[in-house]
Amino acid sequence: MTTNESERHLAAIAADGYTIIENAIESDLIDALEYDLLRLERECGVVPADNDFEGSKTVRIYNLLAKGEVYRRIPVHDNVLPIVEGVLDPGCLVSSLSSISICGDESAQPIHADDQLLPLAKPHIATVCNTMWALTDFTEANGATRIIPGSHTADSSPIYGSHYDSIPAEMARGSVLVWHGSLWHGGGENKTNERRVGVAMNYCAGFIRQQENQQLGIPPRLVKEFSPRLQQLVGYSIYGGLIGHIDKKTPVDVVLGGGSDSGIVWDA
Fold it and tell me: Has residue 252 been placed in a domain?
């Protein structure tokens, strides 16, 4: 992605709270993700959670970085990560990585903001930046994510369960929706007989606790195989030269036996 493209997407997020990166995902990666998600669903016996938020006909698979090598390509993707870093900063972390397959006849998810559980007055700087990867076309009929443009600047979060006028973030297979964590949104109603399949690649600022506990949820033996950047993103790093250190050393050095060149700010 060029600098001009990145700036255009960041300007859209600043103004509207979201942007869509078209043709962001390589076709071979889409195919591999589709295949492996079906494998996981079958082998792990995954079924809908059947609750108000996660849906009664929506299949979700969590902690994907612990479940297959193909998922390692997602958090560090060159077409997406630079935008996220522009919203947060390069010290951002993987908050969660999961799949969301909305099946036919599923009702709409309640409108919400992804940061509304944080006890911070709104509006505030971005603490969360989330992305939805379209593995199928996202249409109004099949449950495209519903969004309320500009709502990331509101001085409150939506009242859970209330109705709000919204628009569908329609996008073609291979596109990625990126949004500010304060944006009001929710999964759409699927009125078709086919699945709307997406991957929710969610990030948070380096000073915010991750939604999924990456350090405990992913065995260190697997993290040792990750690229250095992915190791940083899942939390084996320190933020601002301080937050997250272990005896003034980075988790990469202490836990993984790596050779990080990051120093503590006190020693600078």
Answer: no
Does residue 101 contact residue 136 with C-beta atoms inside 8 Å? Answer: no
Please report whether residue 40 resides in a domain: yes
Q: Is residue 5 predicted with pLDDT exceeding 90?
A: yes
Contact 111, 146 (CB under 8 A): yes
Helix, strand, or coil here: 96? strand
Please report, for residues 183, 185, 223, the alpha-carbon distance to residue 58 in angstroms, rounded to integers and kept in the order given.
22, 17, 29
What are the backbone dihedrals phi and psi of residue 127, each rounded to the nearest 5 degrees, phi first? -110, -15
Instruction: Scan for tokens 């509304």, then name that residue.
Output: 116
Asked, for residue 219, whether it belongs to a domain, the answer is: no
User: Largest Cα–Cα distance in the chain?
Assistant: 60
CATH code at 159?
2.60.120.620
Q: Residue 236 corresponds to which amino acid?
A: Y
Cβ distance 42 to 57 under 8 Å? Answer: no
β-bridge mates for residue 197, sequence order: 101
Number of domains in the chain: 1
Q: Which stretches of the chain are assigned E, i.e. beta strand? A: 18-21, 58-61, 93-102, 128-134, 146-147, 167-168, 176-180, 185-186, 196-204
Nearest 5°: the CA angle 222, 244, 80 is 60
Q: Which residue has the tokens 């759409």?
A: 188
In a domain, 47, yes or no: yes
- Provide the domain limits for residue 189: 3-213
Q: State pLDDT tens for residues 222-261.
A: 999 999 999 999 999 999 998 999 998 899 989 988 766 6
H-helix or E-strand spanning residue 173: none
Dist CA 132 CA 142 (whole Å): 15
